Amino acid sequence: MFAFIFTNIALRSLLNAYTAPWDTKTILRSYRLALYLITFAGVVFRSELAILVGTLTLYLFATRRITIVGVIIPAGITGAVIGLTTTVSIDSFFWQSFPLWPEWTAFYFNTIQGHSADWGVSTWHFYFSSALPRLMLNPITYLLCIPSALLPAATRGRSLDLLIPLLAFVGLFSFLPHKEWRFIIYIIPGLTAVAAAGASWIWTRRGKSVVYASLSLILVASVLASFAASTTLLAISSLNYPGGEAITYLHNHVNTSRWDHPHVYFDNLACQTGVTRFLENHEGPQTIIDVLEAQNEVSKRRWTYDKTEDPDVLLDPMFWSKFQYVLAENPAKIIGKWGTVHVVYGFGGVKILKPGEDSGSPVEPLDGVEKSGGTSKNWTSEVARLWRTIEGLVRYRFLRGLWVEVWMEPKIRILENQALLSNG
Q1: What is the dihedral of CA 333, 337, 343, 345, to 10 degrees?
Q2: Which residues cross the membrane (predicted)?
Q3: Which of 173-182, 241-250, 352-361 has the lowest average pLDDT?
Q4: I want to staple 270 with a disulfide (CB 3.0 to 4.6 A). Which of 128, 327, 362, 388 is the partner?
């Protein structure tokens, strides 16, 4: 998302260049700014932007919009030098390793060494057949609006100026086996701009024929439908962060007063679903600034966190003996005597309920342990309660008993070290 900010500004600069054909200086300045911003964002934040800046540069050069000396070299060198100076100096300090260029490290590991495939492999057409349709939730944008922008001569040229380099970026990126929608999120504003041109073409002609009037009504209806769908998906996606809810619950509701210096371990699922530095209790030595402070000051702090993933270390019983709490997906993998003090539920799937079929509770108790959404007020329970209210109002009055069940299942257990309790 940090890189997304820079690519949005770059696309705006690109559009400014396309709309000012009479001012050569403004055009070249806009092109340089666009390529510079994407280069800088690629060096600092996301290495895949190297492909995007490459497709944009090649397209602009092939269409004789820019020159190597006038635009490409100044934008590339400036973006690379400023980006490298920024990221290497800052990241080397915080990671205490010099010189460190995080994006090169990630690119070398995932692309050159091929480890990205370890996270899963998708078909070559995944971005076009799955990711883009999901990112552009309203199907009218790519089924109607974008084609409508390409048909008229008035909008065709500017639309192609955006579509060709952006879709070329997606096509080249499709050669990598591991694919995620977040890798191509940068092109969505550009595609939306082209779709907006097509929608404008249709809307301004709604009074000329029945066809344009009908298409305009479809546009309005699709906007309302996509708004409802995106709002529903937003509520459902909020249920995908049990790790964040678990650490918040640990700090605010679990009785930790018996421990002077609680040590907490986060497993992989907890870290992937919301556990971040922002949610940690920063009374603990969690940053390089803490380490640089006097030792007696550090010893007064309370919380210490651990995210060790080394499988050999995780098999050592002594490793687990130092923790008071563990946030775990599977308690069976945690060595020692542990008790579950809280269970956090997360999104488990969607189920279609037929007429007469009872709706299961979105959050069910587990083995008598207090469940998330029980006595505490939290976002998960509020979403579940809202969904229940909507069900009561809509299911039997308008849908004749049909309903969509948002199913919840246990995700994260908060475990407490019973051996330490008995020793204490």
Answers
A1: 0
A2: 33-61, 68-90, 135-153, 160-177, 183-203, 210-236
A3: 352-361
A4: 327
Instruction: Find the largest Cα–Cα distance for the chain.
Output: 84
Q: Rounded to an integer, what distance in angstroms lies between the CA atom of residue 130 and that of residue 239? A: 22
- CA atoms of 421 and 170, how far apart (whole Å): 55
Nearest to 203, CA basis, from 185, 222, 190? 222
- pLDDT tens track for 140-162: 999 999 999 999 998 999 999 99
* pLDDT band at 366; cut points 50, 70, 90: very low
Q: Which of 82, 107, 87 is nearest to 97 (CA)?
A: 87
Higher pLDDT, 109 or 393: 109
Q: For 325-394, give the DSSP string.
A: EEEES-GGGS-S-EEEEEEEEEEEEEEEEPTTPPPPPSS--BTTBPBTTSSS--HHHHHHHHHHHHHHHH
Helix (H, G, I), strand (E, B) or coil at 63: coil
SS3 19: coil
Beta strands 263-266; 304-306: pairing state = parallel
Q: What is the pLDDT of residue 112?
A: 86
Residues 6+ apart with CB under 8 A from 238: 379, 380, 383
* Dist. CA 232–CA 240, nearest whole Å: 14
And the tokens for 256?
Answer: 């930790």
CA distance 113 to 318: 34
Q: Around Cβ 186, how many Cβ atoms within 10 Å?
A: 24
Assess contact for 205 and 215: CB atoms under 8 A. Answer: no
Bridge partners (DSSP) of residue 369 are: 366
Give CA separation, 138 vs 186, 212, 220, 312, 376, in Å.
18, 19, 11, 48, 37
Task: Characterize the bridge pairing of strands 403-417 and 263-266.
Answer: unpaired
What are the backbone dihedrals phi and psi of residue 140, each rounded to the nearest 5 degrees, phi first?
-65, -25
**Alpha helices (H) in 151-241, listed in sequence order:** 153-173, 188-203, 210-237
Predicted confidence (pLDDT) at residue 119 exceeds the cutoff of 70: yes
